[in-house]
Amino acid sequence: MRAVWQLSLQLWRQMAVLVVLAGALWLCGLGLLVWSTHTDASLTGTGLGLVAFGGWFWHIGQGQMLRGLCRPEIHLLPRFRARLAGAGALDLTLWVALPAMVAALCGMPHVVMGAAGLLLITAVGLASGTGKRVGLFIWAGFIAVGWKPHLAARVVDIAMHSPWTPALLALAAVLVFRLALRPLLRIEDIEPDTSPLESTGLGRMQSPAMQGRPARGAIGKRIQGWFDGMAQRAMERALAAYRRHPGTRQRMTLIRSLLLPHDNPEAIALRLVLVAAIVGAYFFAILHRPHYNAAVVGAYAVLLSLTRFPQLGRGMLRMRPNLADLYLTLAPESRSEYQRTLVHALLLLVPVTVLSALAYTALGIVLVHATEPGRMLLTAAIVGASASLVALAVHLIGPEGSFGRGLVNIAVVLGAMASYWGGYLLLGLLGVELGGALLALVAISFGLGVWFAAQREYQRRTPCFDPPPA
């Protein structure tokens, strides 16, 4: 039983923020189910929906955790599969059996169908977390609903009145569980790790246990190969330039090619093209109707460009043992000089982030035919520059634990979103010129202040080459 409990705690140790949020949804859902017996019976559906929503995110995290846990050497542990089955039974009890039992006691109609739906949601969430292609089918399902909403509503109405629906949902859940878990329980060699600071975006949502693992699937491996080839060519060019002219600028270019292998011009262009293709396909498939505010595009662009920095914090922790080799190679005169070199190398991420935010915003402007493109681009550029400076600073000197980093990232994202909408309104009230100048004065000053303070603190610290705590 102790082994089952330890397996159940793995998600908390790796993604504490997700556990807290999903657990809060679970408690709120059960609370509404219990409360519905005393007030409104219609709250049972809302409560079960909250449990399903929380279970979806919970099991995405469980899938990521299992993908990193189920390694060949782990299978040598005594009765590992039996202990894993026990942890799975406990998980299904909490997320499927208990909510279904409470809903039945509350007199909810179609409770068997609700329980089968919860089981299918947990299975699909687990499969999505393990990297299976079930996410593509979910995306295709949303596209179909967007194109034919009336047909989708008709299908749902027929399914709600069919006695075969619960059995079909349960059978589909068992099939998805089998497709997700069978590769994890198969013993096979692990492919070489990728760079902790890779920038392909293929491993951006990986859990701590599976960081550095290459993307699965033929398409993911092909894209990863493109980025790795570009990184190799960029490294060879930087090395050749340094051999010809061993100056300070060539030295810094070589260090950046080593630390940030996928932030060369070719890789940046490829990443922008891939994102543009995905966003364009999604827009023309679903969001072809102008039923939303075009300014939201800029907010999404800033948010998407900032997703790099949480990975930077995790990657720098994982790179600690490897940075000892860099320290010996550089042979700095002082520890602060070494820290300053790393800071200047990582500062490249700020212009890359601003360029990404502008490119994503311009793409959105073209797709939605925005009426105020200059206002959106200027706001995205200013807020992107300020937010990237703050994000780089806090992830460079911030907490090492996953929970603390998660809170810091949430604060940065919320601050960036508030700055974008406040700046966008300011430019609308005062005009693009005056409003942009005032927004730049406040935002850039704040970003530079935070960055210079973090830079001084980082240079003051002693370099650490120990591996991060488990």
Automatic annotation (TrEMBL):
Keywords: Membrane, Transmembrane, Transmembrane helix
Annotated transmembrane regions: 12-35, 41-61, 108-127, 134-152, 164-181, 268-286, 292-310, 345-370, 376-398, 410-430, 436-454
Keyword Nucleotide-binding: no
Official protein name in the record: ABC transporter permease
